[in-house]
Amino acid sequence: MDSREVFYKMHTAVDEQGINVITKELVSIHESACWYWCVQKPQLGYIRSRQREGESLLQAAKRGGSKIYKVAKLGSRVAFKTRPEAFDHLMMLKTKQIGHMKREIEILEEFTKKAAGLDIESIKPGSYGERVIPDTHEVVHNHYIFD
Length: 147
Prior knowledge:
Elements: E1 6-15, E2 18-31, E3 35-40, H1 41-50, H2 57-64, E4 69-72, H3 83-115, H4 137-143
Antiparallel strand pairs: 1-2, 2-3, 3-4
């Protein structure tokens, strides 16, 4: 088997054992000046078995409907050359996700607190039909910047 670049992409999944870190190994099947086109490692054998004469692995993968990952040679956010880099990226993504969820929870808590007991018909619609819950301007502007 010829030597191909291998990249790692991680995500989390939950089951009865706890939180699992799932690692996808992506193998390059085509290379250009700026990109690697990759497939998951278990698919490589299948793609090779379906490859026609004169057809590249990339063409065979596309024809077979395989999921193809485009990995940048510089500054990739899709997959990484080492497992530790992929894990560090996963940690950064999950940290950002926590911040987004905290913002959403604060906005939803404010909504349920201010909208409790309101009748939707008592809120005057705006010019586009939207109905703004009274006294929620501040919580929105604490998290979002508008022009």
